[in-house]
Amino acid sequence: MPLQSKHLLGLDGMKREDIQLILDTAVSFREVLDRPIKKVPPLQGKTIANMFFENSTRTRLSFELAERRLSADVLGFQSSGSSVSKGETLKDTARNIEAMKVDMVVMRHFAAGAPHYLAQVIDANVINAGDGGHEHPTQALLDMYTIREKLDRLEGLHVCILGDILHSRVARSNIYGLITMGARVSVCGPSTMIPREIEKLGVDVYHHIDDVLPTIDVLNVLRIQLERDAGRLFPSIREYHNYFGVTRQRLEKAGRTITILHPGPINRDVEISADVADGEHSVILQQVLNGVAIRMSVLYLLSSRN
Amino acid sequence: MRKLKAQIIDEAGFERTLTRLAHEILERNKGAESIVIVGIRTRGEFIARRIARKIEESEGVTLAIGSLDITLYRDDLLGKLEQPQLKGTDILFDLNDKNVVLIDDVLFTGRTIRAALDELIDLGRPKSIQLAVLVDRGHRQLPIRADYVGKNVPTSSSESIRVHVKEIDGEDAVLLMHPEMPN
Q1: I want to staple B141 with a disulfide (CB 3.0 to 4.6 A). Which of A15, A154, A290, B109 is the partner?
Q2: In this structure, are A98 and A157 located in the same domain?
Q3: Domains of chain B
Q4: Would you call A20 an interface residue with chain B, using a CB distance cutoff of 8 Å?
């Protein structure tokens, strides 16, 4: 009944039982986070390196907190100012870190596939914390956990992922995971942000948000990445908000209770209006807390597979 | 497969043992006012509930009952090939200044109880922790003893004790099993 792999590289191809095990195990860790002493000892003696080759605040903090809550020793590593800027290869950086007897590596990298490569060259367990535009498995797992917590199931739900699907590793991991768990998945966004042939992954494509809203249970709103030349993909922020912004009026018109997720950080009144982000059907802050529990679950389950 | 060597406690004896344990707990604590009951998963949880019900019936009170999954506090996790499944700790009340009666089915090496004590103390600061077990089979590896013992069963370390409870196994019984036969 253990996980099939000693690494967590992505949800593409992951078995339903494995996802189920991670989600179920996270329930116990979620309970730990409500205790007066929010720390348990199962990873005592393990050393975990967080290698972040790309900027990240919340994912890095969430992993770090999860590791500390499990009593692991934690090494931090940020690419800026490190040997990477001196020209060292990924393999050499990783081998050097491994030479310090590290048991697990959590890696965020700007290149898709970097953690898969790393998993081949080092013995430690590798956890993908986001690789380029490819996958971000722990984000999708925490999204699924949060949906299940709110609606008691995943099977049979209709989930829409809204926004820049083309550049989103969160979208990709969510699609793989949700479909495996028996949910129906749609994507919605301007055609410049929807990858060609995405239907082959088993999703429905919408270009008008008002068409999909009346049929869905969950809306996962992606962040418009203003820093990643989003300007080339749509004419203006105001236009994006007019056509794809999630507003109270839109949701009321849909006449359905829709649970709202957002991986953060939010651009208020761009992809989502402030009153929806703070509204009663938003589970955005639960996602943050559940993220720690999911990462504890993944670290705990992988830690034995050395 | 291990073979049955002897039945140590039968259905009626099981019930009587739980009744006696409930009364001993009440006597020692001079009533049920300050006590809370915590069972160790899996079978200790059911034994705890049964003892709690007996205390409630005889005193006319309602007790706080919780269950403890000590897996995360085990001392043998590092050597394991796969992590044991978590069943979850479920203690929805404050342990501070309570007299906690910790309940398990079998007391053996004492390592489970060590883990349980560590977890309980992370959850709060009880006034005291007392230990009740259905069977004490000896072979302690840590300086731990029970305050209430259903039955002392001398065993060899290669034998094993199996406790059955109605809720899971369909019957109440304590069985002594032969050592595992080499194939």
Answers
A1: B109
A2: no
A3: 4-75+86-177 (3.40.50.2020)
A4: no
